[in-house]
Amino acid sequence: MRPLAALDAEQRIAHIRAKRWVDYPHAARVLGRLEEIYAQPRSERMENLLLIGQSGMGKTTLIRKFERQSSVVIKGVGTFRLQPVVVMLMPHDPTGPRFFSQLLKAVGVPPIDTFEVGAPRESTVLRVLAELQTKVIVIDELNSVLAASPRQQRRFLQLLRWLSNELRVALVGVGVPETRHALLSDDQLRSRFMNLDLPEWEEGAELTRFVTRLIWSLPLRGPSPIDSPRVMQLLVGRTGGITLGICKAIERAAIAAIRSGAERVDYGALQSQEVWDGLEPPPATVRRRQRSGRG
Fold this sequence. Notes:
Blueprint: H1 2-5, H2 9-17, H3 25-39, E1 48-52, H4 59-70, E2 72-75, E3 79-82, E4 85-89, H5 96-106, H6 121-131, E5 136-140, H7 150-167, E6 170-175, H8 187-190, E7 193-197, H9 205-216, H10 229-239, H11 243-260, H12 273-276, H13 283-291
Helix pairs in contact: 2-11, 3-4, 5-6, 10-11
């Protein structure tokens, strides 16, 4: 970080605001499970994964990293990019046509109305995904299916089962804890999904290592004594253990430290109200912590 720390204030602040990857054990565990899903041979009964975590825990960041790691580029006369992993956003209205439109959008196919008149969406999706050699379809915000009527939910789940069987692809559903309810009405589909939780942070060595690595990635010119138990208690207490809140608070404190000339983040810097404006833990997280006596 030394060359970056030598830049002027605004350049360093821009670096702090940019996206970065900081490894930690739960992330490695999730990526390992995703690799297992990816590596399985094609079969009539693929093993699927349901990744569950509170909003702000970094689920989307993890699946995008998995997508990048699995990308394949073939160079020859032209450059052709296969998509063995396709990440799509669940439509707010979980109908077949909307789902297929989102899926085609995720692989860069033009809107369906540009195709020949009468071309079935199902056949288009099957053809495109086969050409791209897709092995895994990741559906982010799968919990959106809960907004549909029970009948719509059943039809959509049947659609997912058909797609998996027809293409012999694995499915990865991503969403908040309520997402589990989306699979309860389809016994066959539920039995094919393995649940994987991305838990909120708790005080301890893993959080300390994560915060330390995050500080190392910031271009501050002075050492930041941030690995004390009271700092960890403050971060968990104010964020509910949500990754986004922890990262945002530290980044805001680092930006303030650059502007003030302090060049360090410590317990005092994290007590500033400006650091915490708008950062509140989800109500469900607060309730769980209160019930467990950690609130």
